[in-house]
Design goal:
Blueprint: H1 4-8, H2 11-30, E1 35-40, H3 51-57, H4 61-64, H5 75-79, H6 82-93, E2 95-103, E3 109-120, E4 126-135, H7 137-198, H8 206-236, E5 244-248, H9 249-260, E6 268-273, E7 280-284, H10 285-301, E8 307-316, E9 321-327, H11 362-372, E10 376-382, E11 386-394
Parallel strand pairs: 6-8
Antiparallel strand pairs: 1-4, 2-3, 3-4, 5-7, 8-9, 9-11, 10-11
Helix pairs in contact: 7-8, 8-11, 9-10, 10-11
Length: about 400
């Protein structure tokens, strides 16, 4: 239906306005090179052609004007009447958009972004179509290359992850097997060494007694290593079971610290700072005793020059946590070494500590045990200034 403005405008002026509009459109799109922009009549025949259309489709204006636009489609799509369906959709919905294969004059395919817009005359009648085509072949080729590269990298990552998983499984299997195989001989060795120490196998000289005492100590060290290996294997295989009991952490820390005192040299000083009120936690006592023992033993070993070792317990009721800080004045840890501190077998070896015994399992095992209790174990350090380990545990429920 014509508007009031259309009815008040003489027909010849409307025709002149349409011609002027068409000319402006032609001038606007004629010089565009990156897009094929052209008009179709109501039947789909090409009625205008721009420079971009010639560059993309390779037809000159003289060659293409009046020909049906289906010439740009592969044979299978012509046979399925796809070009005509696109025009029908454009009429029904106002426009049609897609990406798909189109043909150049020389028969080569290119990947195109296509927009067909229905055009209407003054009375609303169909006047033809405007068609805009963009050549996306290079972009699609690059995208496919990128997708292929991503797929290859993803396959590499999956293969790497699989190998790492297999390696971790093999490590865990080795830890478990080695630990079990070592346990038997070590038990026998310690048994006979104990018999020697007790004189069951005959009297020993003073020198022999000293040698047997060293054998017993080293046997205990070896058994401790086996215990660490077995515990690590249990954690990694998900077989660790915690036997939680309500415990006053003051008692556990105090008892563990007292076991360390006989090992202190004259240059060391151990201070244990405990709160007045109970610091109640629900823990596996033996597992936490192991953690505390590792931290205190670590502080002693890495303070070869002596100094203060302080163990502080705090009940932070407002945050619902109990904390234990173990600090020393030892050789400290460099910033570049900190990321490996809690890794399995991540023992930090340098000129200052190469003589200090250790497997690199103690801190890894300690952090894992603390995390199984719902807590966390962290460390801060400065070379030459000492190290601080911060153990955090949730307070016992209802305490």
């Amino acid at each position: 239906m014509r508007s009031d403005a259309d009815r008040s405008t003489p027909p010849f002026e409307l025709e002149e306005a349409l011609r002027a509009s068409d000319e402006r459109f032609r001038l606007l799109v004629a010089g565009v090179r990156d897009y094929a922009i052209f008009l179709l009549d109501t039947e789909g025949n090409v009625s205008s052609w721009n420079e971009g259309a010639q560059r993309i489709k390779l037809y000159t204006e003289e060659e293409i004007l009046g020909r049906h636009f289906s010439i740009f489609y592969p044979r299978a799509e012509i046979d399925s009447r796809k070009p005509w369906r696109e025009l029908e959709i454009a009429v029904a919905e106002g426009s049609f958009e897609e990406e798909g294969w189109r043909l150049r004059k020389d028969g080569r395919r290119f990947w195109a972004s296509v927009v067909i817009t229905a055009l209407h005359g003054p009375e609303g009648e169909l006047a033809g179509f405007a068609k805009v085509t963009r050549d996306l072949t290079e972009r699609r080729r690059n995208q496919r290359r990128l997708d292929a590269l991503r797929r290859r990298e993803m396959l590499k990552l999956r293969e790497h992850a699989r190998r790492m998983s297999d390696l971790e499984t093999a490590k865990s299997d080795f830890l478990r097997l080695a630990s079990h195989e070592l346990r038997g001989p070590l038990t026998v060795i310690r048994g006979f060494t104990t018999m020697l120490a007790e004189g069951t196998l005959g009297e020993l000289s003073e020198d022999a007694h000293r040698g047997v005492a060293i054998m017993l100590a080293k046997s205990d060290e070896a058994n401790a290593i086996v215990d660490q290996l077995l515990e690590t294997a249990r954690i990694e295989e998900g077989r660790l079971t915690l036997r939680r009991e309500r415990t006053d952490l003051r008692d556990l820390v105090g008892a563990t610290a007292e076991r360390l005192r006989p090992l202190l040299s004259a240059r060391h000083r151990l201070v244990v700072d405990l709160p007045d009120a109970p610091a109640l936690v629900d823990i596996d006592r033996e597992r936490l005793r192991t953690v505390l023992g590792n931290l205190l033993d670590n502080a002693l070993k890495y303070s070869p020059g002596g100094g203060l070792i302080r163990c502080t317990v705090r009940d932070e009721s407002e945050s619902g946590q109990v904390t234990v800080d173990v600090t020393d004045e030892g050789i400290g840890i460099g910033a570049d070494e900190m990321p490996r501190l809690f890794t399995r077998f991540g023992r930090l070896v340098n000129a200052e500590n190469s003589h200090i015994p250790g497997t690199g399992l103690g801190l890894h095992l300690s952090r894992e045990l603390v995390r199984r209790h719902g807590g966390e174990l962290t460390a801060t350090s400065e070379p030459g200034r000492g190290t601080r380990f911060h153990l955090l545990l949730p307070r016992a429920h209802g305490s």
